[in-house]
Amino acid sequence: QLQLQESGPGLVKPSETLSLTCTVSGGSISSRDYYWGWIRQPPGKGLEWIGSIFYSGSTHFNPSLKSRVTISVDTSKNQFSLKLSSVTAADTAVYYCARDSRVKYSYYMDVWGKGTTVTVSS
Amino acid sequence: EIVLTQSPGTLSLSPGERATLSCRASQRVTSSQLTWYQQKPGQAPRLLIYGASSRATGIPDRFSGSGSGTDFTLTISSLEPEDFAVYYCQHYGTLYTFGQGTKLEIK
């Protein structure tokens, strides 16, 4: 059974870079059928897609965050990572990683990690 | 960018009742790119419906999705206690966008 697990610091200082890793188990990140995505949810608010990556390294980003976001993949470790630079308090959120399925013109996130809370504060 | 507007913001119903949740897009969208999720407090979202009307694996048949163009609906035919949660619609065009959510609460 495919599982995703986020990891990384729970506290980041303003203006610094948030770094998270998602470890995929029970399946290969190198599947041609899937992208791998990051989504966040500020406290008490809705969901915001950050971006997604294919195993080859091809990426798609939310334009609102694109200038600050880097997503990378390490197929040898079955992991993909998120870096968000110049963070502010507005970046405080639960960050989820998810499998991004793009099959037969349908697009959806079908397997999610449990999420990790990141707080931006000095 | 397509904006998804969900209504109502909060829906108060009793177990056994029928729930109808709406998702309206700011412009016409392809049905295959419309998705519904359920989220319970402290949990990650759970895929319910993709392609506007296809149930995800393991989703009970009391959940159904319908609609086309700009108007889409998630229907729960007879509410079970575990169905009370927040529901989000999502669209993929050149990026993923989510609606603001509908909270389904026990009356």
Structural commentary:
- The complex is a heterodimer of chains A (122) and B (107).
- By secondary structure, chain A is mostly beta strands.
- Helices cover 0% and strands 55% of the residues of chain A.
- Chain A contains no helices and 11 strands.
- In chain A, the strands form 2 sheets. In chain A, strands 2, 4, 5, 6, 9, 10 and 11 form a 7-stranded mixed β-sheet that branches. A 4-stranded antiparallel β-sheet of chain A has the order 1-3-8-7, with no helix packed on it.
- In chain A, strand 9 and strand 10 form a beta hairpin.
- The relative contact order of chain A is 0.31.
- Chain B has 107 residues and is mainly β.
- Chain B is built from no helices and 10 strands.
- In chain B, the strands form 2 sheets. In chain B, strands 2, 4, 5, 6, 8, 9 and 10 form a 7-stranded mixed β-sheet that branches. Chain B has a 3-stranded antiparallel β-sheet with strand order 1-3-7, with no helix packed on it.
- In chain B, strand 5 and strand 6 form a beta hairpin.
- Chain B starts with a strand and ends with a strand.
- In chain B, 36% of the residues are buried.
- The model of chain B has no long low-confidence stretch (mean pLDDT 97).
- The interface between A and B is medium-sized, with 24 and 26 residues.
In a few lines, what is going on in this structure?
The complex is a heterodimer of chains A (122) and B (107). With 122 residues, chain A is mainly beta.
Provide tags for this entry.
heterodimer, A: 122 residues, mainly beta, 4-stranded antiparallel sheet, B: 107 residues, 3-stranded antiparallel sheet, 0% helix, globular
Give a quick account of the main beta sheet of chain A: strands, pairing sense, barrel closure. Answer: 7 strands, mixed
The topology string of helices and strands of chain B comes to: EEEEEEEEEE
- Secondary structure class of chain B reads mainly beta
Q: Uncertain regions of chain B: pLDDT < 50 for 5+ in a row?
A: none
Output mean pLDDT of chain B.
97
Helix and strand succession of chain A? EEEEEEEEEEE
